[in-house]
Write a structure and sequence with these properties.
The chain is an alpha/beta fold. Helix content is 46%, strand content 15%. The chain has 9 helices and 7 strands; from the N terminus they run E-H-E-H-E-H-E-H-E-H-H-E-H-H-H-E. Strand 2, helix 2 and strand 3 form a beta-alpha-beta unit. Helix 3 packs parallel to helix 4. It is globular. The N and C termini lie far apart (37 Å). The mean pLDDT is 97.
Length: 248
C-alpha cells in the first residue's frame, strides 16, 4: 500500500499533458485527486478516467487565479488537502519582446505565479493542521536559462523557482516540503500546438535527442510526494534530457 493512500491532492491544469499524467499517477497511489482545469470537459474526462481505474477524483473547472473558486474546490474535498501540484500554465507564444504588452504579461503571471500562490493559500491551513504537506511547482528549463522569445514565460517560470525556495524555508517547521520540477521539452498538447517539427527541433537541443513524455514527469511528482522525497525540500529537479546542464 502506498504511503499516500487516503490523502487528498490538488493538481492544477490537470486536464491535459503533465497535469493529466500526474493526476492519474497520484490516483494510482491512492490519492483522492481534485482535478482542476479551466475547461470543464477536460477536467471531467480525467476524473472519469481515474474513477474508471478504481481511483477517487473530483473535477473542478475554474480559472486557477480565481480565489473564491479555489477555496470552494478545496473545501469540497471533505478534509485537508495535503498534496499540491502547481502545474497550470499557458504557453508564451514564442513572441518577441516588443509584443509582450500588459495584457499578455498579466495573463501569464496571473496563471503561473498568482495561480500557484492562490492554490497554496487555499490548501495551507489543512497542511498546517496536519503538520504535513507536499508542494511541487512545475517550472521550466526556460526559467533557468531564459529564452530569446517569450520573456514573460521565462520570467513567470523563474518566479516559481523563487517561490519554491522561499516557501521551503517558511514552511519546513510545519512538515511541509516544497520542491520544483523544471522539465525540458515535453510532448504535450501545448507544445504540439507549435507543430511536430517545432517539438522535434527543440528536442535536438538536448543530449537524448527526443522530447519527454508527460508520464516521465509524473513519475518524479510521485517520487517527491512519496516517502522517497522526505529529505528533499527547496530543490529543483531537472528532467530535461540534458538541456540545459547547469549548476555544480
Amino acid at each position: 500500500m502506498s504511503a499516500l493512500e487516503g490523502r487528498r491532492g490538488l493538481v492544477t491544469g490537470a486536464g491535459s499533458g503533465i497535469g493529466r499524467a500526474a493526476a492519474i499517477e497520484l490516483a494510482a497511489a491512492g490519492v483522492e485527486v481534485i482535478v482542476q482545469d479551466l475547461v470543464h470537459e477536460r477536467a471531467a474526462e480525467v476524473a472519469a478516467t481515474i474513477r474508471g481505474k478504481g481511483g477517487k477524483a473530483a473535477a473542478a473547472a475554474f480559472d486557477v487565479a480565481d480565489e473564491a473558486a479555489m477555496r470552494k474546490a478545496v473545501a469540497a474535498a471533505g478534509g485537508p488537502v495535503t498534496l499540491l501540484l502547481n502545474n497550470a500554465g499557458i504557453a508564451g507564444g514564442n513572441i518577441e519582446f516588443e509584443r509582450v504588452d500588459r495584457t499578455a504579461y498579466m495573463r501569464m503571471f496571473d496563471t503561473h505565479v498568482w495561480g500557484s500562490l492562490n492554490a497554496l493559500h487555499a490548501v495551507l491551513p489543512g497542511m498546517k493542521a496536519e503538520r504535513f504537506g507536499r508542494v511541487i511547482n512545475i517550472a521550466s528549463n526556460r526559467g533557468q536559462v531564459g529564452f530569446e522569445r517569450s520573456c514573460h514565460y521565462s520570467g513567470a517560470k523563474a518566479a516559481l523557482l523563487g517561490f519554491t525556495k522561499a516557501w521551503a524555508r517558511e514552511f519546513a517547521g510545519w512538515g511541509i516540503l516544497v520542491n520544483a520540477i523544471a522539465p525540458g521539452v515535453i510532448r504535450t498538447g501545448m507544445t504540439l500546438a507549435f507543430g511536430e517539427q517545432a517539438v522535434h527541433d527543440e528536442a535536438q537541443l538536448n543530449l537524448l535527442k527526443r522530447p519527454g513524455a508527460p508520464e516521465e514527469i509524473a513519475a518524479w511528482v510521485r517520487f517527491l510526494m512519496e516517502p522517497t522525497g522526505n529529505f528533499t525540500t527547496g530543490q529543483l529537479l531537472c528532467p530535461n534530457g540534458g538541456d540545459p546542464i547547469v549548476g555544480v
